[in-house]
Structure of RNA polymerase subunit sigma-70:
Amino acid sequence: MVTSETPETSATEHQIGGIPLANLVRDFHLPMVKFACTLVNSPVAAEEAVQEAWVQVLKSSDTFEGRSSVATWLFGIVKNTVSRHRRHESRIRAHEVLATEDADPLSGRMHPVGHPDAGHWSIPPAKRFLPEDQTVARELVEYLRTALDSLPVRQRQLIILRDVVGASAEEAAEVMEVSAQAQRALLYRARGNLRNELEKRYRQ
């Protein structure tokens, strides 16, 4: 049951890795809910999972040893909390990361290996991606949210970790339980698909 009381009300004296727990709630609660939404079927279930995760954080705050970043630790707890409610689901399979038959979302839009400008755009993003005023900026944020929601679950999770939370490649791979190579491949695909979705909505 989701309550109106936030974990912050009982976290004023707790610290994790030298960071007050209230500050962690302030900075990570919404990203954690967003992440949980990719794992469950409803926003309510996601909020419940994160509330339960914060309870677990409070109980185990003294056990944090700093072997990973606080962010990695928090998102790991969210994932484990959700997993306890979904034990019927199978573990991650390789084809969820990058199926060889999938089309490259950026095919023909970046210079290939061997080209002097390899890794750079051959067809640059539309100029409309550069907001000129607050109205356009707000429009871009709304399009970004819609485009993010359209991505496959695994890709959406990784974008949240890498580009919203700011987790490193190693931290994201740890949370996602994938290899470094798989993380890079999935992130490439996720960012490419996100760009394509944005350009669909911005196409004049």
Remarks:
- Confidence is low (pLDDT under 50) at residues 1-6, 8-12, 88-95.
- The first strand starts at residue 15 and ends at 16.
- Strands lie at 15-16, 19-20.
- The first helix runs from residue 21 to 37.
